[in-house]
């Protein structure tokens, strides 16, 4: 009977959401901290949503500044909750950021700061003047970012002026080449400098600009007329010159090889010189011959004359 009563009580409880919510709040140890948890969750959600909206291509630094500052401000406010406590007198700051085995609020905030903001190198494009105590943080763009934006707008304005009068891509390449070269030259100067850098926003913007310029409008790095007669002439001349050089090289190698082969044949048919064998005799052989000759001579001299 007791099991039936408990079962009916659970069915009634699950069937009434407002009663379940009231029942849960009554037993929620951290209920006094929940309003601040929801405020932090809302700030995190806005930042994550902004980062997701500007993730392809990634342009968080120049589009999610307000959301990032608001998130950091909310984090500061929740970390300062030392006077508001839970039912067991634990501060809400500890409840939110480290009271359990896993702190979802801390993990999300840390991921936004390190994996999104820091890896995008946002500090290379703007500087945030933090004033979290008074809730009055501001930001300023770096000079390199401002100059890049100015040159980018000059190039885009040139494209707009040309396309208002004509849709011919050749006119776009011819009339806006100077602005494109100025933009790329400045970008490359900062990009290759060891002491400076751009954020991911500027890099992706420049990549998109180059793709539009080269792949969409088929513009080159330096505009040239459609007539390529001079280039064709230079190509033919270079090809003929390389062909002649290659022919002379192989012809000279062939002649040298034939001459060396003929000399080897002639040397093989020659008889060795007469003095060659004497030069090949060792000193010991010469000594033996000299000894035998001396012995014969001495014996001849020592023999007495025969008397008949």
Automatic annotation (TrEMBL):
Residues 289-308 are annotated as: Disordered. This is Osteopetrosis-associated transmembrane protein 1. One of its GO terms (cellular component) is cytosol. Residues 1-22 form the signal peptide. Residues 290-299 have a biased composition (Polar residues). Pfam families: OSTMP1. The chain crosses the membrane at residues 232-252. InterPro entries: Osteopetrosis-assoc_TM_1. Keywords: Membrane, Signal, Transmembrane, Transmembrane helix. It comes from Steinernema hermaphroditum.
